[in-house]
Amino acid sequence: MLRVSCLLLGAGLIALAGCNDNNAPPSPRGATKVLLIDAPFPYDQVARVDVYIVSIQASTRPDTGRNAGDTIQTGLRTIVAPHRAYNLLDLASGATAVLGEGTLLSGEYVQVRLTIDTDSSSITLKNGTVLKQGSGLDWRAGGSEQFGVNAFTDPPLEIPDSGAIVVIDFNLGQSFRPFDPANPAAGFTFIGFVSAINSARSGSVSGTVTGEGDAPIGDASVTLWVPNPSFPTDTAAWAVVAAGKTDASGVFRLPYVGPGTYVASVEPPSGSPYGVLWRSDVAVTVGQETRLGTIAVGPAPAAKLAFRTQPSSVSAGTPIVPAIQVAVVDASGNTVLTATNSVTVAIGTNPPGGTLSGTTTVAAAHGVATFSTLSIDKAASGYTLTAAATGLTSANSDTFTVTCSHDCWTTKASMPTPRYGLRVGVVNGILYAVGGNPSYGVSTDVVEAYDPVANTWTTKASMPTPRSGPGVGVIDGILYAVGGSRCPPSGFCANLATVEAYDRVTNTWTTKASMPTPRYGPGVGVIDGVLYAVGGFSGSDGTGLAAVEAYDPVTDTWTTKASMATPRYDLGVGVINGILYAVGGYDGGPLATVEAYDPVANTWTTKASLPTPLGDVGADIINGVLYAVEGLGSSAVEAYDPGVNTWTTKASMPTPLNDLSVGVVNGVLYAVGGYLVSAGHFSIVVGAVEAYQP
């Protein structure tokens, strides 16, 4: 019989040494040791791996089946029985612990068995979470409290009379597989990757890992592999012979490696700019140390793109902050610091049809392309960006929302009744959509009210007279619908002089004195309680009117005023500081003409023309500035400042609509209704509502 002394050495390797047995007192030179050292555990969120070792046994006969724990069937002999837990992460870099002493016969041993108590074993994360059997740690023991892990030897472990040291590799990284590699807190399952070797039949491998400028690379993983001939390119099917990590000086040493030729991999730590290096010529000789010398790793090849800075604070029409950054990365996701690829970003998912402005193609610097001038013009939720570069896998950003804070548009709840040729008035913070054409050439009496706070619509009392293209103005909380055109489902349209007044409190309409001149498409403005009807047309030849007529609701009478210089209809009208501005309109074509009316002097003055001729104009005032919205399908928006007599182009409407109407509530301009044009022809009537924040 041989006396056996057992030690725990490092974190994962068990070593046994045999000695003489001649029925004499045990000889000290025959002491058998058990050494436990480990390949690195690649999960830095783990603080402890406590494995409770009940016993260590050896056998001259292999058996991994149902008889594996039967000492009679397998010839298992107990060497030591520590009955204690060991934190395998503590037993690294040559640290040792004595497991005990035992006896072992000389001979060839083909199996070493570790019996583990699963109830007393655990993995502790750095956040304090403890994973145990049934709670994040699956030992695959079939519910048994204790089970054995078998380490086989190839070739057999010869324990001669002169003694031997046998090393068993308890590979933590291979033995404990995470349920989710990105989240160790999800738990681990135990595979049991344990191998054994006679130290007398082993060699070692050493070297130094460096990067650019011969700088040492610490914490790099060095692994020796045996390729699987059936899967020559799939490392997941290869066998790991030995593994370790470099120290701060880039030095590594892999002890107890069996003779043979292996493939070595050197993988720099996560976040390193260097790529994985492979060598297929690592030969190990018994009793020798294979010195690989300096292993210089280079940058990993660029493989794909990744968003390093996602869109977060995005306001429509303003640069996205912080600036979007897209990295050129290797297959492992590490930034390739030497990459200078040109990267192009574009809108991916685009709910409202927004436009991406700014510099969209940037060359990477130190592997990262920075986009500091990007902006998106339309507010909405559910946007994404895409990034692309020639030869690399593209990337998609997270979804994000573009908010509207300045010079931008948002989409609001649609009108229940789609229509064009309607007109809008605002009373007590509620926008009223009056009349219009729900289908081509047919007038309606529908009135619907929009509450911007609730973003909801409500149907109100219908107008007594169906009409499209009326003028609408509000005096002392009463909405007046003036003129327009009545088009029945069959027959001819008739231009109207009819005036009807709506009281929101009683939800009723009252007929008022008719205009002197019947007309379609007049502009309407209110100054000092008097309503002015400006322009329009009254004939069937499409010729505009220059006529101006004023209505006094106190006397329910109309008065003729000085005519405009330019006849027109479907013009926009707004009042600023007691002056009425007539903007654009139509008279055989869109107009750029702007004229200002002074009711005190009863005179007109020409002002700065629109930058672009606009027809079917919707206009209203926000903070002393007149906003003109094109209703002839171009979606253009222009702003006029009467103080300096200049126009400024603003953000276009999201949807190019024809014959819409606008109104202002609490400093926000709402564009309502209209129709779409397809291939130059009338297409679809819409109930769209889009809000502009100046």
Task: Report on the architecture of this protein.
The chain has two helices and 62 strands. The chain has 694 residues and is mainly beta. The protein folds into four domains: 199 residues; 94 residues, Sandwich (Immunoglobulin-like), CATH 2.60.40.1120; 102 residues, Velvet domain (Immunoglobulin-like); 276 residues, Neuraminidase (6 Propeller), CATH 2.120.10.80. The strands form 16 sheets. Strands 2, 3, 4, 5, 7, 8, 9, 10, 11, 12, 13, 14 and 15 form a 13-stranded mixed sheet that branches. Strands 18-17-20-21 form a four-stranded antiparallel sheet, with no helix packed on it. Strand 60 and strand 61 form a beta hairpin. The termini are far apart.
Top keywords for this entry?
Immunoglobulin-like; four-stranded antiparallel β-sheet; single chain; 47% strand; 13-stranded mixed β-sheet; 694 residues; mainly beta; disordered N terminus
Sheet with the most strands, sense and barrel status: 13 strands, mixed
CATH architectural label of the largest domain: 6 Propeller
Poorly predicted sequence stretches spanning 5 or more consecutive residues? 1-34
For the record, what CATH class of the largest domain applies?
A: Mainly Beta
Beta content comes to over 45%
> In the residues, how many domains can be counted?
4
Quickly give the structural class.
Answer: mainly beta
Q: Multimeric state of these chains? A: single chain
Query: Percent range for helical residues?
Result: under 10%
